[in-house]
Specification:
The structure holds two protein chains of two kinds. Chain A has no helices and eleven strands. Chain A is mainly beta. Chain B is mainly β. In chain B, about 0% of the residues lie in helices and about 55% in strands. Chain B has no helices and eleven strands. In chain B, the strands form two sheets. In chain B, strands 2, 4, 5, 9, 10 and 11 form a six-stranded mixed beta sheet that branches. A five-stranded antiparallel beta sheet of chain B has the order 1-3-8-7-6, with no helix packed on it. In chain B, a hairpin with a 4-residue loop joins strand 7 and strand 8. The chains are: A mainly beta, B mainly beta. At the A-B interface, strand 5, strand 9 and strand 10 of A face strand 4, strand 5 and strand 9 of B.
Amino acid sequence: NAGVTQTPKFRVLKTGQSMTLLCAQDMNHEYMYWYRQDPGMGLRLIHYSVGEGTTAKGEVPDGYNVSRLKKQNFLLGLESAAPSQTSVYFCASSSGPSGYEQYFGPGTRLTVT
Amino acid sequence: DQQVKQNSPSLSVQEGRISILNCDYTNSMFDYFLWYKKYPAEGPTFLISISSIKDKNEDGRFTVFLNKSAKHLSLHIVPSQPGDSAVYFCAGLHYGGSQGNLIFGKGTKLSVKP
């Protein structure tokens, strides 16, 4: 089992460019999450999904969109990148409320210049 | 409004001694508290949890204590090992919605010196 994987591991964007981060999990988990972590900060929830075809906003959703077309994949999109979106992005999954433990991917380091 | 607070950004401990990492919270609706460990360039990994109806949970060298009246929890690592050097995040979980979202503290960087 690979667990939770993220693609790419690193990316540099210019302001205004767009990109999509891919998260995949092979644990058949219902719930998936996107977080960002900034220096000196904890992880903050961007968007999450409680099942295929459903998404919802987290704490810091502005400037991001997500899609969950397949149960195993959760995509995070930046339509017009801004320097404030420079961060490390983590994807996580869990089996649901009764399985509260979240499993995290290795992260994507994004720099917007 | 920070619902989960880790007021010590860093902690240094000698190998073999006890490490105590502290966490305070303001949301009395949390159902569970979790500790995650994070090494550089890796994602956080789950370490140990405690239900809000318990006051202690132990797993090997790791013990978490919960004091609900003080809204305080702590993670004890005994004995500390150099491999324990990492950033430790405390997180609270409330099942009020259906999403099971974790609210994280800012983390405490633990350094265990040989």
